[in-house]
Amino acid sequence: MVMSEPKSQGATFDSIAVLPLDNFSDDPEQDYFVAGMHEALIAELAQIRALGVISRTSMNRYRNTEKSVPEIAGELDVDVVLEGSVMRAGDRVRITVQLIGANPERHLWAETYDGDLQDVLRLHSDVASAVAREIQVAVTPEEEARLASTREVDPVVYQHYLRGRQLCVSQEESELYRGIDQHRQAISLDPTYAPAHAGMAKCYSALAAFFVPPEEVATQVQTAVSEALRLDDELAEAHAMNGHMKLFFLRDDSGGKDFERAMELDPNSVRVLMDYGRFLTASARFDEALPLFERAVELDPLGATTVEDLGWANFVARRYDESILHLQKSLELDPEFVYGYGWLAAAYTQKGMVDEAMAAATRAETLAGDSEDQNILGVLGWVYATLGQRSEAQRILDQIGRLALRRRVDPVQLGAIYGALGELDLAMELIEESASKSSVAPYLAAHPFTDSMRSDPRFQEILRNAGLEQ
What we know:
The protein is α/β, with parallel strands linked by helices and 470 residues long. It has helices at 31-46, 56-59, 69-76, 120-134, 141-148, 155-167, 173-189, 194-210, 214-231, 236-248, 256-265, 270-282, 286-299, 304-316, 320-333, 338-350, 354-368, 374-386, 390-404, 411-420, 424-435, 457-465, and strands at 2-4, 15-18, 22-23, 52-53, 80-89, 92-102, 105-116. It has a domain at 2-150: ABC-type transport auxiliary lipoprotein component (Rossmann fold, 3-Layer(aba) Sandwich), CATH 3.40.50.10610. Strands 1, 2, 3, 4, 5, 6 and 7 form a 7-stranded mixed beta sheet that branches. Strand 6 and strand 7 form a beta hairpin. The longest helix has 18 residues, at 214-231.
């Protein structure tokens, strides 16, 4: 069934926001399924390079909103808004969508799509292709072919994948393991479903960033990435994970081509943009990295983590004024964002703004509580040590020491704190221990946290031996 209105005066548009889809099913348990369809529809549209597509993170802030389309479009700086609903009844799915121009507000087009659950991926592509036609955005032959080349997926496989994907953005160890299990169940039911393999790699990589030594999961990451690429060489997430794996697990800096391919396949992916930005930041290629983080913020302007990452990237690039501005913005978006306060304290420290740094660090520590996140503890310990607050730095070191009794702690965090305290012998010992193993070791050569050691010949030798010399 089609209900369409012609576009006004043949207008063309180059930016779009997709509002969260309404769940018109009788079962509230289908909310996760509808959320997954919302993300998938955004992902389909995001493959079109000529179209700017706002990310799901920002769009989720408009769930159940009472704001008008012109208000939403103005806040996000987009031309058109797509809204719709999903109704699932047994093995049938109905998606109803309507396209609304923002300035002035007018209905451009509406349509209803019906299909079986195994056709759900085709439904996403059909909607995305129709939207592209209606707004007359330029679609390359390659993009058109990708939109058309969908496959059937078992509904149970897809549900496991969606649940796993949601769990694997967590920074909780138990959630990450649950995410791995969901991806594993999807793979056991359909070993040929490439996104589940790429998602599995992402989960294991997140574990290495926070909880386990990278060498314990390197094989799992490499196997999952290789399998995802073998099954689908046009899966952007798999190419991005391949580039990430090369540097952060194998100490191979040749992953730039992998990220470039990922960006060709999914030019509007916030994840790909930020992962490539981190890759370039580790090599101190700041002039190339920062535009990627800035583009990510354009696509996810209301995502506190995305804005904070831009602040972090500016901090590493030693652009402290810009860093402070972006970190303050991240805290406007999420006033209880512990990383926003932690990195803000670090940026204030580098600016010599002692009172502001201490206030931000105190707030971060309050929010962190008895945290088991060694990364935020490392930031706070470095801030206190750099400010000459030895007793506060020692308190953080003691907290990290207690954490080490329960699970693995990356020595690089301790090395940065001891370096800031002027205890260079101990710092060098810890940095050397972590240089070849730590998931954050590739940042050692570029990061301000190691400035206190940079002139020491031992530090340069450690970088050379670990293949991290710039």
